[in-house]
Amino acid sequence: VALIIAGSGPTDRDGNNPAMKNNSLKMLAEALSENGIATLRYDKRGIGKSQQAGEKESELRFEHYISDVKDWVALLNQDERFKGVTIIGHSEGSLIGMVAAQESCVKNFISIAGPGLSADKVILEQIESQSPQVLTRVLPIIESLRQGKMVNDVNPQLYALFRPSVQPYMISWFKYDPAEEIAKLKMPVLIIQGLNDIQVSEAQAKMLAKANPNAQLKLVDGMNHIFKQSGTSRADNLASYNQPDRPINPVLTHVITDFFMQNDKQKSNLAHIKSCVTQ
To answer: pTM for the whole thing?
Structure first.
């Protein structure tokens, strides 16, 4: 069984949020099901059916998401229908999943479009590419948050990103370096990266692969950040974010299924999982 973790923001179990509907995670789950792989998707706390479980924004921490994944893994490991849990983390869900996997009974770990840089560096890269003139105002805020210190006097133009109520979450998030965390994983690891992804680059996927030499890296031609087959134009790429009927790239399903089949044959890993569950 695969536990699928959504990416950043108010993203629900289907891969949708109030600003876009693409059904990416739903389509992935359905495709894997057709290949005999069970999946569990869930709305993150504060989102969809999990809205009542949400914290106040000022009280939310990155560790809450990690703890939730560990609880879901524990629940799945108690289900006798399954012989091992694989975590599939998308985008920010990749980092959440790889940290949770270190302290959970997990058979395999799969990262799809997972950043290879810590969140603070990703934010700086995005701002530099989109609004370089804003970078000088953002740098001192990021540096303060890196040191665990909040910034109360935020420029109104930056308030949406750095409002005081969200800063505690960002402080907790910035502490985790994906390259350092993936290096700690002992189970089989698969890193998947779409070559038409305009949010996470191929270079970041290669950072993750370099950090864990035992990991497999699969680059998928034509796939964008939300798994959709897209053209090379930015307009077509962005259009897919609001096209729930556009299919996901079929290679993604094949790569994941092959990884499952390959590791099902590794009896030593299965024995480890059984031992882990027993403990």
So the answer is: 0.92
